[in-house]
């Protein structure tokens, strides 16, 4: 449970990083939108790149290639691949 929360924090941080790469005024608009960004909807974690860059909620879908050390996800909208590495 704690790990899950940490991964959601990471997604939020990543989304802000993507937003910071935008030029004004898109950056400001994106950061405003991110205040209400949900890092998880239902069973699906949300794509930080779609959120930060496009102000859009997109599901990160499990790739099925995870290992015992990590889960891997891919966004079907922008193609971002994201790994959730389990803490030891
Ligand atoms: Zn995406």
Q: Walk across the major sheet and give the strand order.
A: 3-4-5
Largest sheet: 3 strands, antiparallel
Strand content: 15-25%
Mean pLDDT: 93
Which ligands occur here?
zinc ion
Tally the helices: what do you get?
3
Tell me the distance between the termini.
Answer: 14 Å
How does the overall form come out from the CA principal axes?
elongated
Number of strands: 5
Helicity level: 25-40%
How many whole angstroms does the radius of gyration measure? 13 Å
Number of domains: 1
Unreliable stretches: none
Instruction: Give me the secondary-structure category.
Output: alpha+beta
Helix-strand pattern, N to C? HHEEHEEE
Molecular structure report:
The chain has helices at residues 2-20, 26-34, 48-54, and strands at 40-41, 44-45, 60-62, 70-75, 81-85. Helix 1 runs parallel beside helix 3. The mean pLDDT is 93. With 88 residues, the chain is of the alpha+beta class. The longest helix is centred in the first third of the chain and has 19 residues, at 2-20. The chain has one domain (2-85). Zinc ion (ZN) is lined by residues 47, 49-50, 58, 75, 77-78, 80.
